[in-house]
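Thread: Newbie trying to understand structure tokens

Hi all, I'm a second-year student working on a class project, and my supervisor (Dr. K.) asked me to get a predicted structure for one chain before our next meeting. I've only ever worked with sequences, so writing a 3D structure as a token string is new to me. If someone could post the tokens and maybe explain what I'm looking at, I'd be very grateful. Here's the chain:
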Amino acid sequence: MDIEQSIYESTLYIHSMYNEPITVADIAADVYLSPSYFSFMFRTFTGYTVKNYLNRYRLYCAAIDLRDSNKQLVEISYLHGFSSQQSFTRSFSQMYGITPAQFRLQNSHINPFPPENLLSKGRTTSMELMHCFENVRFMNKEAFYVVGVEVDIHYNTKDGTTPIAGLWETWNKESIAEHISNQVSDGLVYGITHSETIDSKAKYFIGVEVTSLDDLPVGLVGRKFNQSEYAVFNTTLSIIWTGDFWRAFYSKWLPTSGYTTYDAPHRKSNATFDKYPAIEVYGKDFEGEQSVMQIYAPIVKK
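---
Reply by user tm_fold:
Sure, no problem. This is what the structure looks like when written as tokens:
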């Protein structure tokens, strides 16, 4: 699967259907991806959530119409996918700082959207990033158990992953790992995004690997994940935060690796979801965003 090409094709679909009441699920189905996986990849490659991109494109097209035509505001509202003139005016004002009427009177300048080289936005070619892919190793990990805490996140809201930072603060402040028995690896902590749903929501889990889920401490969550082969990369949290690692993984490393992922295309009426999530692995000497960590990326032979 060429995921970058799929994301590009999804933008073409948005551009052709933006004035219709399309949903994230509609767009994902057009490129044969599950909504949750598509939402994550779209944000990784473009820097925008799907809904934010769609709204920005609608507003940009409406702004062009304001500048180049004498159509009434209410007509422009409905022509460009808004449910009412009030909704259009509110969104336009929030985006551009002036009302549609003021924009038309002032003949204001507006930057094109989407920007040029959208899929290269924010991408780095630094040596630091390239080092992540120089010494990849492979491992087969049997099914395993983890115990810890988790929080809901949402791929299609601006602050949808913000709760992750709060969860890590709780994990560290309350020294939760010290209350978990039967640990497999001394000092290793996992960060795992799992349980994606059709509405692009998911759960982010922080925990440690254990031998079983017996005697689960009160207030903590136990999970089991399936056996898989993993490609293991050394990286840093700062590279993960920018999205550069996953952009390079999907667009550069994976296509030439001889492997693919478990994230399979789906029929338009039947989404498929990832049962083999990637794992962030933090050692006991991890100190901050520049410290070395590992990513376990689940893979299968092509």
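A couple of things are worth pointing out once you decode it. The CA atoms of residues 75 and 102 lie 17 Å apart. DSSP finds eleven helices and nine strands in the chain. Feel free to ask follow-ups in this thread.
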